[in-house]
């Protein structure tokens, strides 16, 4: 990580400490200590297992999409990808750093950038599609609860649904509309020509070199994106694995509540509410949705949790497992050397006129 990312990471940790300190203002410390001592470790370990399985299944998804077209791409490399993604998501607004961090991790392993971009884009589209599908089902199942308890969040969730749906449409356009993508890349590279460092000749030379490099990777990206999108067994496998992956993630609050002794709860309602919380978090520009995540959790789960100390402890455990655990694991993964792939890619690119 560079210096700026390290500063953001420290800042997010400080914000997290501040939020929980603020949440503790009306909590009796003796009650909190009692809740910690009497927690049911078996259920808590299941919650921990859920986040571990969530990350491991994503590694399997990466391995599935990479397939056998990159010799020597080990499962260890695949495990690195979701962990680095968690770090990137956690320190950037709107979780926008997850994709670039994953791309860097794959390039560190020696995967060609165009192919790596296609794999990550396809994985992301599948992930977004399953999120939107889960949200649609959760909204139907939990709408009566929201109507009675939290009116304003209902509109935030619908807005979040619209944003995620628009992202899917935009990504599909990028994948299939080669001419549009090329124009957007060319527009971005024009800044190098007009505003780069050095004299005019150096800027033009740098622009020509970057344009050639970008065109080559862009062709590779579209070639592989189209190939994967037409491979229905691959797509169905990705959809199935992503659905299972997200169900483990969405189940975390249910096991946390069981760990705190709340046995008479509805699994499907708790899971549906967590789906809705995840959608709301994505709307907050602060890295990790800090502030919005904690408020959303408190608003939706206060009806199930009797005491303020239990609510704060549940929020602390949930936030650690769904946010900080991934960031800390991502820091280790980011600083772990990747296994280099053994061979270069040997696919042939389509001619430009076939894609334009």
TrEMBL record:
Q: Which membrane topology term applies here? A: Multi-pass membrane protein
Q: Name one GO molecular function term.
A: phosphatidylglycerol lysyltransferase activity
Instruction: State the InterPro entries in the record.
Output: L-PG_synthase/AglD
Q: What is the top-level taxon of the source organism?
A: Bacteria
- Record field: transmembrane: 7-24, 44-66, 87-105, 125-143, 155-178, 238-260, 267-286, 311-334
Which processes are annotated in GO (biological process)? lipid metabolic process; response to antibiotic
Q: What is its EC number?
A: 2.3.2.3
Tell me where it resides.
Cell membrane
Key word Membrane present: yes
Q: Which UniProt keywords apply?
A: Antibiotic resistance, Cell membrane, Lipid metabolism, Membrane, Transferase, Transmembrane, Transmembrane helix
Q: Which GO terms describe its cellular component?
A: plasma membrane
Coarse class of the protein's main subcellular location: membrane
Q: Pfam families, alphabetically?
A: LPG_synthase_TM (PF03706)
Reaction(s) catalyzed by this protein? L-lysyl-tRNA(Lys) + a 1,2-diacyl-sn-glycero-3-phospho-(1'-sn-glycerol) = a 1,2-diacyl-sn-glycero-3-phospho-1'-(3'-O-L-lysyl)-sn-glycerol + tRNA(Lys)
Similarity annotation? Belongs to the LPG synthase family.
Task: Please explain the role this protein plays, according to its UniProt record.
Answer: Catalyzes the transfer of a lysyl group from L-lysyl-tRNA(Lys) to membrane-bound phosphatidylglycerol (PG), which produces lysylphosphatidylglycerol (LPG), a major component of the bacterial membrane with a positive net charge. LPG synthesis contributes to bacterial virulence as it is involved in the resistance mechanism against cationic antimicrobial peptides (CAMP) produces by the host's immune system (defensins, cathelicidins) and by the competing microorganisms.
Q: What is this protein called?
A: Phosphatidylglycerol lysyltransferase
Task: Name the source organism.
Answer: Periweissella cryptocerci
Question: Which gene is the coding source of this polypeptide chain?
Answer: mprF
